[in-house]
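Regression test case RT-17, inverse folding.

Input:
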């Protein structure tokens, strides 16, 4: 799919969309505080990049995202494995996990900031909580997708439960787990931004909030574009690991 022709088409489509946005914003005289033209967004992007503001806050956001992703995934895989392999865990633990997941994390974010402060810890906790559930569900489904006839065959050959787990259940679950990781990575980024919206000393979410107070809508759009690109790159990293 990555042929020169497709690349040219993608670039032309981007130029057409941004050009149409620019023309529409200027022809309709849309106020810049409602919808700034792409030229204003590009200028704000240039100022933030040259001034080093974006780079500094991006590193903070990325740190919280990656740590939250790793923490949430480790917890999700552990609990997902326990629920998938143990009926007791499934009966007693899983309902509480579902009820906790039903709580809106945006409502929990202020409490998380109060409990863990304005530093990186609150971002990691928020990111981990949001990234946790999709991977846990995929882990459960994946581990339970192993062919029971193969499980019975391995048991008849005196294979231990550990051997069955590592040589049959995990390979069967890998497609599900990797799909869960793709979702969890993006959700971890969202969780970090939510925590930064509520209260943070640095980060792209905090930067958006400060721009909102100063009515710098062009700057807000530029930060959103940075976040979109970061999310795409993080997703590609997971896809690369999957391959």
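Golden output:
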């Amino acid at each position: 799919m990555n042929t020169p022709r497709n690349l040219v088409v993608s670039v032309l489509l981007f130029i057409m969309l941004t050009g149409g946005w620019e023309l529409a914003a200027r022809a309709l005289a849309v106020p810049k505080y409602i919808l700034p033209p792409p030229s204003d967004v590009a200028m704000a992007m240039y100022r933030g990049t040259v001034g080093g503001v974006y780079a500094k806050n991006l590193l903070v956001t990325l740190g919280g995202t990656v740590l939250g992703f790793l923490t949430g995934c480790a917890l999700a895989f552990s609990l997902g494995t326990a629920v998938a392999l143990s009926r007791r865990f499934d009966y007693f633990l899983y309902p509480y996990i579902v009820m906790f997941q039903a709580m809106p994390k945006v409502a929990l974010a202020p409490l998380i900031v109060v409990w863990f402060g304005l530093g990186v810890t609150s971002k990691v906790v928020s990111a981990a909580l949001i990234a946790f559930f999709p991977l846990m569900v995929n882990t459960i489904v994946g581990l339970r997708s192993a062919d029971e006839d193969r499980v019975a065959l391995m048991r008849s050959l005196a294979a231990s439960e550990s051997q069955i787990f590592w040589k049959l259940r995990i390979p069967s679950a890998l497609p599900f787990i990797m799909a869960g990781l793709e979702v969890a990575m993006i959700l971890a980024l969202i969780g970090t931004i939510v925590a930064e919206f509520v209260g943070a000393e640095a980060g792209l979410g905090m930067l958006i909030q400060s721009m909102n107070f100063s009515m710098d809508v062009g700057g807000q759009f530029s930060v959103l574009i940075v976040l979109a690109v970061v999310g795409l790159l993080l997703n590609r990293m997971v896809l690369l690991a999957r391959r």
